[in-house]
Amino acid sequence: MKSFRKELFFNIPRRRAYINITHQVQQCIDESGIKEGMVLVNAMNITASVFINDDEAGLHADFEKWLEKLAPEKPYSQYSHNGYEDNADAHLKRQIMGREAVIAITNGKLDFGTWEQIFYGEYDGKREKRVLVKIIGE
Asked: What's the predicted TM-score (pTM) here?
């Protein structure tokens, strides 16, 4: 069994965004040489997420509207967490959207269902953050 580890770095210039990282994850698989196994893709910051869904702009706009209804950014004073920081909403959004995705690797490729793609979700941007890609297999 082999293992491979790489970090992807992101510095999103706005507070929130959804970035398709499928290609970067596949590049990591290619680099690893692993043909059969699993890949863990993990947001390494408590105000970001990794999730699998469709790469469709309308759906991403729906995520944004839905998450803002569930955990609105403002007023900042509505959250006990906000004092030194103003990102309580980002913590809640990450909790809803998830921390990581685990995907099977078959014949050296991500083994996806129809339309599935991997996304990095940013909820408190404007600074560097990272995503861990950990691959195990043969």
From this structure: 0.96
